[in-house]
Amino acid sequence: MEDIVKFLFELNLLKSMQRTGWFFIGEHRDDSVASHSFLTAVIAYYLAKKLKANKEKAMLMALLHDIPETRVGDINKVMARYVSGDEERAINESIPEDLDEFRALLKEVEERKTLEAKIVKDADLIEVILQAKVYLMRGNPLALEWANNAKSKLTFEISKEIADKIIKEKEVWWKGLKKLD
User: Fold this and answer.
1) In 3-state terms, what secondary structure has residue 65?
2) CA 84, 43, 174: angle at the middle one, nearest 5?
3) Is-above-0.85 flag for pTM?
4) CA distances to 17, 52, 103 from 66, in Å
5) For residues 91 and 81, what is the distance between their CA atoms, to the nearest angstrom?
6) How far apart are CA 123 and CA 88, in angstroms?
7) What CATH architecture is 2-168?
8) What does the pLDDT look like over 28-60, one tens digit per residue?
9) What is the pLDDT of residues 106-153, one digit of tens each?
10) Taking phi first (over 0 means left), then psi (-120 to 50 degrees means alpha), and beta for anything else, what does residue 176 get?
C-alpha cells in the first residue's frame, strides 16, 4: 500500500510540471504534462476506435506515456541534443511492482511496433498540433511551424485529416452554441 501512495504523490507532480518545448516559441503557460497526457488519451481513444484497435489499451498507454517525466523531466527536442534521461530506470524505480502491466505498456509505447503504440504517437502529435493552434489563435505566428512539423510526423490518414482540420480552423469552438434561457 505504501508503494502506491508514493506513486500517486509522484504522479501528482505532473499536474504542475510544465511542458518545456513551448518555451522556444515564447509560450510558458497552460500546458502541464498531466493536461497533455489527458488530452492525448482522449485522442488516442478516438483514433483507436476509428482504426478498429483496442481503444482502452490505446487510451491507457497514452495516459501513462509521460510517467517517466516525474523523474527525468520533460526533455524537449533541443534539450535531447545535450542531455538524456534514463526513462527505463525511472519507470522501473517509480512504478509499484503490482502495476507491472504499466511497465509493459510503456515499453510497448517506446518500441512503437503495435497498432496501439503507433496510435499513441499520433495522438501525442495531434495534441501538440492542437496546443500550437491555440497559441497561433492567440497571436503567436511561430506556433504554425510547430504544428506543421508535428503534422509531418503523423502515421495514419485519419490523424492527418484531424491535423489539417485543426490547423485550418478559424472559429472558436464555442461559437454557435445554443443560447441559454
Assistant:
1) coil
2) 120
3) yes
4) 11, 24, 12
5) 22
6) 22
7) Orthogonal Bundle (1.10)
8) 777 899 999 999 999 999 999 999 999 999 999
9) 999 999 999 999 999 999 999 999 999 999 999 999 999 999 999 999
10) left
C-alpha cell at 9: 504523490
Query: Could you tell me if 118 and 154 are in contact, meaning their C-beta atoms sit under 8 angstroms apart?
Result: no
Angle, alpha carbons 120-65-27 (nearest 5°): 90
Q: How far apart are CA 15 and CA 124, in angstroms?
A: 17
In which region does residue 73 sit, left (phi positive, over 0), alpha (psi from -120 to 50) or beta (all else)? left
Q: 20: which 3 cell numbers?
A: 518545456
Give the C-alpha separation, 148 to 145, whole Å: 5
Domain ranges of the chain: 2-168
First to last CA, the chain: 50
Q: Residue 131 and residue 127: Cα distance in Å, rounded? A: 6
- The identity of residue 52, as a single letter, is K
